[in-house]
Amino acid sequence: MTVLGGFHHVKLPVSDVRRSIEWYRRVLGFDVAIEFVEAGVLRGVALRDQAGTLMLALREEPRLAGQMRGFDPVALGVPTYDALLEWSDHLDAIGTPHSGITEGSVGWLIGGVADPDGIEIRLYTLQ
């Protein structure tokens, strides 16, 4: 069997692409890498983290976005507990609600970070 090398990207449904771009930029520091325009309308984007190691795609699908409210499909890796503390401070500084740092099944995490559609993004230590 051929070896896999990780994820190429994860795609999330959103109800408003532009509003979501701003949230993912402000809260998680993602920048737009690719725009998907159909019939002159922005319908999706691929976002990349500042280190260029992650790609997260957003696709305009309001019905699906509503159905995912409260679900946590993505846990973004954070290298260390100290880096997770920095994320907690950042979220507090920009007024983004979160669970605080809690112990996970492996490592530590910040949960309760909900995007504009209520989809939860978690930050999880890698060790």
TrEMBL record:
Signal peptide bounds: none
InterPro entries per the UniProt record, alphabetical: Glyas_Bleomycin-R_OHBP_Dase, Glyas_Fos-R_dOase_dom, VOC_core
Domain VOC: 6-126
Pfam families in the record: Glyoxalase
Transmembrane segments: none
Stated name of the protein: VOC domain-containing protein
Source organism: Streptosporangium roseum (strain ATCC 12428 / DSM 43021 / JCM 3005 / KCTC 9067 / NCIMB 10171 / NRRL 2505 / NI 9100)
